[in-house]
């Protein structure tokens, strides 16, 4: 099963995350199928590749809790429901 989750980058005490599509059996920082954006909690910046995220969600991908919250803030689920 494919999951949309965060992959940690950055240095100690300065996290930076990439939103990725990955097989659920792989480890957190394993090889991603596709990178779909980034999230910087320190600066409060988020950039998402919405068309590819919608593609993976339509294909049955599950989101982690944190990525789900990010997608709700970016109103991706609203766009997904409008497309159906």
Write the layout of secondary structure elements.
Layout: E1 2-11, E2 14-23, E3 34-40, E4 45-48, H1 50-58, E5 62-63, H2 65-73, H3 76-83
Parallel strand pairs: 1-5
Antiparallel strand pairs: 1-2, 2-3, 3-4
GO molecular function: structural constituent of ribosome
Family: Belongs to the bacterial ribosomal protein bS16 family.
InterPro entries: Ribosomal_bS16 (IPR000307), Ribosomal_bS16_CS (IPR020592), Ribosomal_bS16_dom_sf (IPR023803)
Q: Could you describe the 3D structure shown?
A:
It is a single chain. The protein has one domain (about 1-84): S16 Ribosomal Protein, Chain: A (2-Layer Sandwich), CATH 3.30.1320. Helix content is about 30%, strand content about 40%. The protein has three helices and five strands; from the N terminus they run E-E-E-E-H-E-H-H. Strand 1 (about 1-10) and strand 2 form a beta hairpin. The longest helix has 9 residues, at about 50-60. It is globular. The two termini are about 20 Å apart.
